[in-house]
Amino acid sequence: MSSTTTYGVTVPDIGRAEVTVTERGQGRPFLLLHGGGGPQTVSGFADLLAEAGPARVITPIHPGFGGTPRPDALDTVRGLAALYVALLDQLGLAGVTVAGNSIGGWIAAEMALLGGERISSVIIIDAVGIDVPGHPVADFFSLTLDQVSQLSYHDPVSLRIDPAAMPAAQREAMAGNRAALAVYSGMSMTDPTLQERLKDVSVPVLVLWGDSDQIADADYGRAYADAIPGAVFQLLTQTGHLPQIETPQQLLAAISAFAGSDAGHIAR
């Protein structure tokens, strides 16, 4: 069972923003953040994580994605991170594991920097956001959907999406998602200040990376982990940029193992 609610959340220096949130399951809270492909890229995995629980899985839609409104002042990844910290405050949650894929991983990294007692740990999954010399993030905005698919999956043939076969409404939603992503990422998918700032992260962090990711390669992922004190890096085999779609059971096992060890760490 899942329920969907739209919350009005007030963020310092940004103002009020509406956030549509779907919740599944009961138990330890997880905030699961989608990437540029939109909320549907994590919905199936959210079901899996909640069923494997006990877990309460909270999946917000980034304002501007999925046809939702985005206030003009909410135009950066750091702003999204502040929005979700405020959402956790509003929901009164504690001991939250924040997990994000792609730009969602970037948001999760920024949330780790904001800290606060409500966040117990962070899981960064094939994220973007840092600038690693020699390992650039693919120029997403210059690529066709088919080219993005080729770079995103270990087995792109079986997961290929044919835009011509999509209903018009779905194509419009994808165009809206792409426009929102361009605003938040500044068209570059990186923040040149992020890597240095990550040295101030103080919560436990797991960095998970697909060995076949060609949007941001495995060495890019290792650089992410190296920038965060005490972060653990784990390579996921035969998977690309979206392990929650391509190898969900492998991702679930990694998250469950980390969440269990992190729970023990907190208890001590």
Characterise the protein shown here.
By secondary structure, the chain is α/β, with parallel strands linked by helices. The protein has a single domain (2-267), classed as 3-Layer(aba) Sandwich (Rossmann fold). The chain has helices at 40-52, 77-91, 103-114, 145-152, 156-159, 168-185, 194-197, 218-226, 243-246, 248-267; strands at 2-11, 15-24, 28-33, 55-61, 96-102, 119-127, 205-210, 232-236. The protein has an 8-stranded mixed sheet with strand order 1-2-4-3-5-6-7-8, with helices on both faces. Helix 2 crosses helix 3. The longest helix has 20 residues, at 248-267. The two termini are 33 Å apart. Mean pLDDT is 93; it is low at 263-268.
List the helices and strands and how they pair.
Elements: E1 2-11, E2 15-24, E3 28-33, H1 40-52, E4 55-61, H2 77-91, E5 96-102, H3 103-114, E6 119-127, H4 145-152, H5 156-159, H6 168-185, H7 194-197, E7 205-210, H8 218-226, E8 232-236, H9 243-246, H10 248-267
Parallel strand pairs: 3-4, 3-5, 5-6, 6-7, 7-8
Antiparallel strand pairs: 1-2, 2-4
Helix pairs in contact: 2-3
